TrEMBL record:
This is precorrin-2 dehydrogenase. The keyword Plastid does not apply. Coiled coil: none annotated. InterPro entries: Met8-like (IPR028161), NAD(P)-bd_dom_sf (IPR036291), SirC_C (IPR042518), Sirohaem_synthase_central (IPR028281), Sirohaem_synthase_N (IPR006367). Keywords: NAD, Oxidoreductase, Porphyrin biosynthesis. Its EC number is 1.3.1.76. The keyword Secreted does not apply. NCBIfam families: cysG_Nterm, PRK06718.1. Pathway: Porphyrin-containing compound metabolism; siroheme biosynthesis; sirohydrochlorin from precorrin-2: step 1/1. Residues 127-151 form the Siroheme synthase central domain. It catalyses: precorrin-2 + NAD(+) = sirohydrochlorin + NADH + 2 H(+).
Amino acid sequence: MKPRDSRRLCKVYPIVLELKGKQAVVVGGGTVAFRKIQGLLEAGAFVQVISPEAIEEIRSLHAANRLMWKQKKAEPMDYEHAFIIFAATNDPEANQQVTRQAGPNRLINVVDQPSLGNFTVPAVARRGRLLIAVSTGGASPILAKRIRNDLLDAYPEDYAAYTEFLFYCREKLKKWKASPDEKQKLLLEMLDEQYVHSVEKQQSFIHILEQKVT
Ligand SMILES: C[C@@]1(CC(=O)O)c2cc3[nH]c(cc4nc(cc5[nH]c(cc(n2)[C@H]1CCC(=O)O)[C@@](C)(CC(=O)O)[C@@H]5CCC(=O)O)C(CC(=O)O)=C4CCC(=O)O)c(CCC(=O)O)c3CC(=O)O
Ligand SMILES: NC(=O)C1=CN([C@@H]2O[C@H](COP(=O)(O)OP(=O)(O)OC[C@H]3O[C@@H](n4cnc5c(N)ncnc54)[C@H](O)[C@@H]3O)[C@@H](O)[C@H]2O)C=CC1
């Protein structure tokens, strides 16, 4: 990778993208394509795989009607209506051709030549509504994975219920006709460590909140 390219991967803008019902085209049917497909399906995207061959995991998703599979090499018409594209073949020339044909105004990820695309995929730690994405800007996907695993240890499973609790309370508080100071006090109170690991404490906070906010 040229120094210019590596700098480019540092100048990026992180977003959390909603893909429910959006058309996602994945070109290639190997293990890397499969990893990207898993994330897309979790997000509720409508996945189309374009590849002459596919690994067993992709074939069984296809058999279970979880995705569409066009068993052929990619052509421009395959991603005409795609909202997001993944060039994930093992053929650098084919991946490059996808980027050329897709044009500059699509979201496109290129698994073997990231600077040809316009986004990369981070390693992700999820605990319910809490989502932490780790990117090393192409320096080391393994480091990204390692940091993700450290974060999963630092933010254990309890955070799924806890973030659901926070969401519920915050929605209530948004509707509460109280002063910003009063709201702020409760928004900070619910971050107290005692609520993180105890569903009982969360319930009693909700009980108090529901009496205030009717
Ligand atoms: C730029 C980027 C573009 C993109 O794919 O979006 C990219 C590019 C490349 N990856 C390569 C190799 C590996 N990638 C992984 C793993 C992951 N790669 C992911 C993301 C990204 N990889 C983006 C940057 C992310 C960042 O900067 O932090 C993760 C985080 C997310 C995901 O893919 O879902 C996922 C872990 C997720 C998880 O487990 O949750 C492993 C390890 C493994 O498989 O266990 C290896 C082998 C070790 C090694 O080579 O380091 C190669 C060389 C290929 C070759 O040798 O030919 C390239 C091409 C290049 O760097 O030029
Ligand atoms: N970004 C990442 O996270 C990583 C990227 N890589 C890179 O990704 C590439 C793909 O890796 P794997 O999935 O392991 O490869 P693989 O060899 O398992 O699969 C390649 C797939 O591409 C398909 N294919 C080939 N030419 C095609 C074309 N013209 N149109 C449509 N499909 C086509 C093949 O049928 C096959 O299903 C590797 O060459 C490597 O450079 C490798 C590891 C991680």
